């Protein structure tokens, strides 16, 4: 791929996923760092008869919450025949929760961990109030941002309407039991966050 996408210079690839590839990029205009997701077109713009009538891009463009990762802009991938779309997001310079706990080892206190989880609870309540499910709450999607080390919720690639029966999405280690046997609602996200809290608490002891 090109080293430049629109006004962003690609620094390095961060990950490869089923729905998107992710990159760290620098703005040519501001020199700021940003997170770019390159989505398959059908993930960004599902067909009208698709059951997935809410997408990550649609949600993030409308989201206004201090603890939800910030949408910056989106644009078509420059090579049109590839039918891909780029989303530019705030870059979590403080790492995700999993990496943060690994790098700081025992330096994270219970109070700090509880503060982070409380902020994610507020973000998750915002998502649920919109009639939506996150469906992939795990330490990789809890992002620590800025000098103040604020926790923000990211990883909205699996977002869906509040009633869901899809058992193939998410990270199974953090999934509520009903995710595998029946339709599920927002309680499944809360279960997943509880698993994250328990696992993280064990790591800082």
From TrEMBL:
MF terms in GO: ATP binding; protein serine/threonine kinase activity
The UniProt record lists the keyword Oxidoreductase: no
Domain Protein kinase: 8-205
Keyword list, A-Z: ATP-binding, Kinase, Nucleotide-binding, Serine/threonine-protein kinase, Transferase
Record's catalysed reaction(s): L-seryl-[protein] + ATP = O-phospho-L-seryl-[protein] + ADP + H(+); L-threonyl-[protein] + ATP = O-phospho-L-threonyl-[protein] + ADP + H(+)
PROSITE patterns in the record: PROTEIN_KINASE_DOM
Record keyword Kinase present: yes
Classification via Pfam families: Pkinase (PF00069)
Enzyme Commission no: 2.7.11.1
Stated name of the protein: non-specific serine/threonine protein kinase
PANTHER family attached to this UniProt entry: CAMK FAMILY PROTEIN KINASE, SERINE_THREONINE-PROTEIN KINASE NEK1
Enzyme's top EC category: transferase
């Amino acid at each position: 791929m090109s080293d430049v996408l629109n006004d962003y210079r690609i620094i390095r690839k961060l990950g490869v996923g089923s729905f998107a590839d992710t990159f760290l990029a620098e703005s040519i205009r501001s020199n700021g760092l940003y997170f770019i997701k390159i989505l398959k077109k059908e993930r960004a713009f599902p067909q009208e008869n698709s059951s997935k009538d809410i997408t990550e891009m649609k949600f993030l463009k409308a989201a206004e919450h201090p603890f939800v990762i910030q949408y910056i802009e989106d644009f078509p991938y420059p090579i049109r025949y590839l039918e891909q779309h780029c989303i530019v997001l705030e870059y979590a310079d403080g790492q995700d929760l999993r990496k943060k706990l690994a790098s700081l080892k025992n330096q994270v206190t219970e109070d700090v961990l509880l503060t982070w989880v409380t902020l994610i609870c507020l973000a998750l309540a915002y998502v649920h109030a919109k009639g939506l499910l996150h469906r992939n709450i795990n330490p990789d999607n809890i992002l620590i941002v800025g000098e103040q080390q604020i926790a923000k919720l990211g990883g909205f690639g699996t977002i869906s309407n509040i009633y869901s029966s899809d058992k193939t999405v998410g990270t199974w280690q953090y999934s509520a039991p009903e995710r595998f046997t029946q339709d599920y609602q927002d309680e499944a996200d809360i279960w997943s966050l509880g698993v994250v809290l328990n696992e993280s608490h064990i790591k800082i002891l």
